[in-house]
Design brief:
Elements: H1 55-67, H2 76-79, E1 87-92, H3 98-111, E2 119-123, H4 129-135, H5 139-148, E3 153-156, H6 157-160, E4 166-172, H7 178-191, E5 192-200, H8 202-210
Parallel strand pairs: 1-5, 2-3, 2-4, 4-5
Length: about 210
């Protein structure tokens, strides 16, 4: 015979422990909450809930909390994080096509949302036409463009050591002696904050990078 479904036997006590009435417990220590809550009106038998301290007052507490050792840390020395190693991307290209490949990489970076001032381009052989043009007005005007930091900056291997760090560095291995490639890649690796893009012969690039650059 068909079974008659019983009413669910769910009692209030099965829904988990309930909080004790407010009148029968001590006010808990206030805690920060994920999002803002409306302030509850104060009750006669206890003070109203304390508001989280404003950011200026919380700073001292946050600083002391961050100073405490955390699991996996080795004390205060671990707080000084080592500089991040840039991600390296290799774009295969011949010496004759390395500069064009670098230009395409810059275009893609700008299309993806990078600002022009984020990008430094270093060449190992012939300088980029922009660099050659700006240098024709003298080094002072050329480095003034660099210091402004509002556009892509181009430098050859010999001048790259003077360039400041930027989030993205693109290297065009477009010829030049082996020493120029080593100088350019070393300067690029130390100046790239997040991304290093190298355009050129993969075997030559890997041999230089494998040498500890």
């Amino acid at each position: 015979m068909p079974l008659i479904p019983e009413e669910p036997q769910i009692h209030e006590k099965a829904q988990g422990p309930r909080a004790t009435p407010a009148s029968g417990r001590t006010a808990p220590t206030p805690r920060p909450v994920p999002g803002p809550r409306p302030a509850a009106p104060p009750r006669p038998d206890r003070p109203g809930p304390a508001r989280p301290a404003p950011p200026a007052q919380r700073a001292s507490r946050d600083a002391s909390a961050s100073a405490a050792p955390k699991p996996g840390s080795s004390g205060p020395a671990a707080a000084a994080a080592a500089p991040a190693t840039p991600q390296i991307q290799l774009i295969p290209a011949s010496p004759e096509g390395a500069l064009d490949a670098a230009e395409e990489a810059v275009d893609l970076l700008l299309d993806s949302g990078r600002t022009p001032g984020d990008v430094l381009v270093i060449t190992t052989g012939e300088p980029h036409p922009w660099a050659a043009h700006e240098l024709s007005f003298g080094e002072s005007a050329y480095w003034a463009q660099h210091d402004a930091g509002d556009d892509v900056f181009y430098a050859d291997a010999a001048l790259a050591a003077r360039a400041a760090s930027r989030p993205v560095v693109v290297v065009a291995v477009n010829g030049g002696p082996e020493a120029a490639a080593v100088t350019a890649l070393s300067a690029a690796h130390s100046r790239a904050g997040a991304l290093l893009i190298v355009c050129g012969d993969p075997q030559r690039i890997n041999s230089v990078l494998g040498a500890g650059v």
